Every structure is written in structure tokens, then in C-alpha cells.
């Protein structure tokens, strides 16, 4: 651990750090978790389970299980930074390249599938995988069953067309007007609801807005727990627009999020200072919702559209400390 990482560990929340629940999936959630583990050990990741493509989609179809890919990525992001954790992270993330049936499969997806079959309990399987990777926190699925995502998109003649499946929605270049999940009221694990109830901070984003971030607000039991939680709520905006949000600014992302959560009070917005093109609109939106707006340099200097874990951790620590003092 370098000096900056040690400095980030020292906070007014104590050695273990604040209790944080982070929502999302894919690379966006992984970036957030990689930052959070530098400042707290009390992390619960609540991860989307709607992936229907690639290795996850194949295993989901073949075995009728939760798609493991986003859960695997969250476990890997929370793995210990010492040699043991990083070695097993690399093993879990290893993807086979062959001419056979293993081609494209990530080893961690197969390990999770085996654990779930042996133990008969997805939560127990994730906890065992977490012990293997020596994770700093816990990884939980956002629902107890696989989900389907569908979206209404605006076509070139202004008509609405329905797109089905997470992969199709994520790759959709037409403007998305609304998303839905099926089943509409899926069962949720008690462990996820308990974590939300006990949290000091709930963090949403960054990530694919319509397929990783917003779906959490569409699950009735999860949404009710989020709204009832006394935790502070932070919305982290993306660095750049992706395919499914190609026409959206930072203010558009924030506005869309709050439209899906009308009963949800956001306490703070966090955005990269260099990527905002509509700062006035974002400032006005934050003021309208009584939220604090933090703009900081968050992008990795040597990569395109990737959050730097140290920059993001420093921003989290600053926000946690400042808003605790203001409470």
C-alpha cells in the first residue's frame, strides 16, 4: 500500500470506515468498488443480474442460474491488493480463448456456477468466492432470480419500438425513452435489504445508465428499502456518454435518474470536472433537488473514459467527511 492509499485509509470513520452500499454492474461498479476499498472495509455491492450475453448469457441459459459475470467483476474489484488477492483476481478474470466450448468463458463465471450447484445457495457461493479472493466487503445480487430488461426506443420516424434483452438495450443507438424489467416484482435477498438499512452511504453509478444503474430502482422491495434508508445518497455520473446514452449530457443522466426515483432524495452528485459540458444545467438541477454538487478530476490520465481509483477514492473520502460534518 503506497502513501496515498495509506492516507486515504485514515478517516474520521475509524479503521473499518463507513458502511457503504454500491449499486450497479460491469466496469462502472468495478471502478467504484476499487476506489471504495481504499477507504473502507464496510462495503456491500448490490449487482445487476440481467446480463444475457457472452459467457454469462450462455451459463444463465444452460443452467438456469443468475448471470455470474457482473458478480464476478465486483468480487474481483474488491479483492485484496496483496499478492494472494490479486493472483486470484487474475484467475477469476481469466477468459479462455480456444476453438472449443470453453471459448469466451471467464473462469470466475464457471467457479461461481460450480459453487452455486454444490451449495444450492447463490449468497453462500458468493461468500465462499469472496473468501477465496479475500475481498474487502461483500457482493450480493440485486434480485434472487435472473432479470430481463426491455426498453422503448424512439425510431427515426418518431415511433416507439421495444428492444428486448440487456445486450440489445446496451447496444441500442436510438434514444431510449423507458426501460422495464421482468419479472416486475422479483424476490430480493434479505441480506441486500439489511445492508441498505444499515448503510451510512448509498452510491449509484457510474456505469451503463439504463442497463446497470437504473434497474435497481425498478425492483419494488429494493426501491422501498433505498427510499426508507437513512443513509446519505450519492449519484456518480459517467465520464463520457456510451452507446445507450449517446445524446445525453451529465445533467440529462442526473435528471433521468431522479425521474426513475421520484421518492428518492439524492444528497450529492459527483462528476468529473473535465468532462462536464453543461455545468450550469447540472448546478441548477442539484439546487432544485437540494443536493450538493462535487466536480473533481476523476479520469485516469493514461486511459480513455476510465475512472482513476485513487482520484475517485479521494473524492469519496472528501464527500463522506464533508457531508458528515454538515449533518
Descriptive account of the structure:
Keywords: Cytoplasm. Belongs to the gluconeogenesis factor family. It comes from Arcanobacterium hippocoleae. Helix content is 43%, strand content 16%. It contains 14 helices and ten strands. The strands form two sheets. Strands 3-2-1-7-8-9-10 form a seven-stranded parallel β-sheet, sandwiched between helices. A three-stranded antiparallel β-sheet has the order 5-4-6. Strand 8, helix 12 and strand 9 form a beta-alpha-beta unit. The model is unreliable at 9-14 (pLDDT under 50).
- What string, H for helix and E for strand, traces the elements in order? HEHEHHHHHEEEHEHEHHEHEHEH
State the low-pLDDT regions, or none: 9-14
Average pLDDT figure: 92
Strand content: 15-25%
Helical residues, percent: 40-55%
Strand order of the largest sheet: 3-2-1-7-8-9-10
- Taking all Cα atoms into account, the compactness measure Rg is 19 Å
| Total beta-strand segments | 10
- 3D shape: globular
The helix tally amounts to: 14
Distance between the termini: 32 Å
Please identify the structural class as seen in this structure.
alpha/beta
